[in-house]
């Protein structure tokens, strides 16, 4: 409301009440939905990490013109259609590692509360009924547009409904709609009908969180008219109604235009995770600050996929090495250099996340930890080789040569501490994979092969062709195979044991 950054002070010490507007389930969810629910999942997770008990309510608008139209087209009931796509949405959220909210109410389970709220608004003289419809009177509410800061003449009549000439003011919006032929309906004091769009969230948020609560979230397209109208009708019924903090996430754009089902320029979450690992999509969405618009592109998704592969490969390599030492009970302290790095990383993480969820900076900061892990892994390997060679020499000579350098135990302790810090912060952000690191690396490689249009067998055949060409000194042929694969997002690496591959950002 103030358009300023302010310290977050919950109404009740140690508790947070948060309401986020949910989907209208008539189709598969697109990545604009993923954008919103990943953003608020990050907030939910971070508040829980800080020790708050969070009551997180996210609704389903399971009665709506679009649902009715689609159900009629498909020859099924509104309930069966909405239930199907609610289940599909929940599957998508699980794939993206969004924690389930505390409550997920459906509009159709709260008709009684909606009717009660409309009745209260009418008793307060802020709404009027006409031929079975009930409209909110914006002229009766001087605070109208205080959230969006719009002027009344900017209002677009309609939004989700056709303009009705019977309204006292073109900006008046429907609280209750009279039943039309063939549509679901409920009995009310104004006749059979169903709720308007905006009243639903006012009724459900008040029912679960009370008239005053901490956080109300949604996409920035909801600021007007949805949240503006919610605010007006809630206060019209109960003047004490207040949301302490409104939070809105940016859009996902395709070619600089908002991605939307109505414009048919959208990708579903299913479309994206058919080609990219869900953790790559989550990482991609978190790479942009939640309030800013995300520009969707294959390149940005490739970069995100490459980054998560690097994170998980580094952690996997670390786990493999540490598996030999975890039971040893090493008693040396964490080396000062790594200890300082971990303490700074932890502090910066808290500073960035507490400053309006700066996930972009947080994700970038992981690179220092990853480099430190890889550096310690390399140094440990070299040191172990050196020590094996020194075993043939006198004990005293060996001690003299080692006095100025880290011992294996130092590297091992550094790796244990760095790994713990990285995994801890990835978990808070919902970026630790649900399966083993080996499994998620396998999945990332499978997605990379799908994008490259290759099977594992076809790739191994190309690697073998390259090996033969190298053996025959046909370097143009072998280099051509490597370059061609690199353009498809497959990097080849020649190691002593043979040629291995990993996904990479495609070379242009």
UniProtKB/TrEMBL annotation:
Residues 388-408 are annotated as: Disordered. Its cofactor is Zn(2+). It comes from the Eukaryota. GO terms for cellular component: chloroplast; mitochondrion. InterPro entries: Cys-tRNA-ligase, Cys-tRNA/MSH_ligase, Rossmann-like_a/b/a_fold, tRNA-synt_1_cat_dom, tRNAsynth_Ia_anticodon-bd. Residues 8-304 form the tRNA synthetases class I catalytic domain. Its EC number is 6.1.1.16. It is found in: Mitochondrion; Plastid, Chloroplast. Residues 398-407 have a biased composition (Low complexity). Residues 445-472 form a coiled coil. GO terms for biological process: cysteinyl-tRNA aminoacylation. Belongs to the class-I aminoacyl-tRNA synthetase family. Nuclear genome-encoded factor required for normal assembly of chloroplast polysomes. PANTHER family: CYSTEINE--TRNA LIGASE 1, CYTOPLASMIC-RELATED, CYSTEINYL-TRNA SYNTHETASE. This is cysteine--tRNA ligase. It comes from Panicum miliaceum (Proso millet). The lineage of its organism: Eukaryota, Viridiplantae, Streptophyta, Embryophyta, Tracheophyta.
């Amino acid at each position: 409301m103030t358009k300023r950054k302010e310290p977050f002070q919950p109404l009740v010490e140690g508790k947070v009440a948060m309401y986020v507007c949910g989907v209208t389930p008539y189709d598969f969810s697109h990545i604009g939905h993923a954008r919103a629910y990943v953003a608020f999942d990050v907030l939910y997770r971070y508040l829980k990490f800080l020790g708050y008990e969070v009551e997180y309510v996210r609704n389903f608008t399971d009665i709506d013109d679009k649902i009715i139209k689609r159900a009629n087209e498909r020859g099924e009931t509104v309930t069966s259609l909405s239930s199907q796509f609610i289940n599909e949405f929940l599957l998508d959220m699980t794939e993206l590692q969004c924690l389930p909210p505390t409550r997920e109410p459906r509009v159709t389970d709260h008709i009684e509360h909606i009717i009660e709220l409309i009745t209260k608004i009418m008793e307060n003289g802020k709404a009027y009924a006409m031929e079975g419809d009930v409209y909110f009177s914006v002229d009766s509410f001087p605070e109208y547009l205080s959230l969006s800061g719009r002027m009344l003449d900017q209002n677009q009549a309609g939004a989700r409904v056709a303009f009705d000439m019977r309204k006292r003011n073109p900006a008046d919006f429907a609280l209750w709609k009279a039943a039309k032929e063939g549509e679901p309906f409920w009995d009310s004091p104004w006749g059979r009908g169903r709720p308007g769009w905006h009243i639903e969230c006012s009724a459900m948020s008040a029912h679960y969180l009370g008239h005053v609560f901490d956080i109300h979230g949604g996409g920035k397209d909801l600021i007007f008219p949805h949240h503006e109208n919610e605010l007006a009708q809630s206060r019209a019924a109960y003047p004490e109604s207040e949301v302490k903090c409104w939070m809105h996430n940016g859009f996902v754009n395709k070619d600089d235009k908002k991605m939307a089902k109505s414009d048919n320029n959208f990708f579903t979450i299913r479309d994206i995770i058919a080609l990219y690992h869900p953790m790559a999509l989550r990482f991609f969405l978190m790479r942009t600050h939640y309030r800013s618009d995300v520009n969707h592109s294959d390149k940005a998704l490739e970069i995100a996929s490459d980054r998560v592969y690097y994170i998980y490969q580094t952690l996997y390599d670390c786990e493999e090495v540490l598996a030999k030492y975890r039971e040893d009970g090493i008693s040396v302290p964490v080396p000062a250099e790594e200890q300082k790095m971990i303490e700074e990383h932890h502090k910066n993480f808290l500073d960035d996340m507490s400053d309006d969820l700066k996930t972009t900076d947080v994700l970038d900061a992981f690179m220092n930890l990853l480099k430190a892990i890889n550096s310690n892994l390399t140094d440990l390997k070299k040191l172990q080789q050196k020590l094996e060679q020194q075993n043939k020499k006198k004990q005293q000579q060996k001690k003299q040569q080692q006095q100025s350098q880290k011992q294996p135990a130092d590297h091992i302790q550094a790796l244990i501490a760095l790994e713990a810090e990285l995994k801890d912060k990835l978990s808070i952000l919902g970026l630790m994979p649900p399966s083993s690191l080996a499994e998620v690396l396998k999945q990332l490689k499978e997605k990379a092969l799908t994008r490259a249009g290759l099977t594992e067998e076809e790739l191994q055949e190309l690697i073998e062709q390259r090996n033969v060409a190298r053996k025959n000194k046909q370097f143009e042929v072998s280099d051509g195979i490597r370059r061609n694969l690199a353009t498809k997002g497959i990097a080849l690496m020649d190691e002593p044991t043979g040629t291995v591959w990993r996904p990479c950002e495609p070379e242009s």
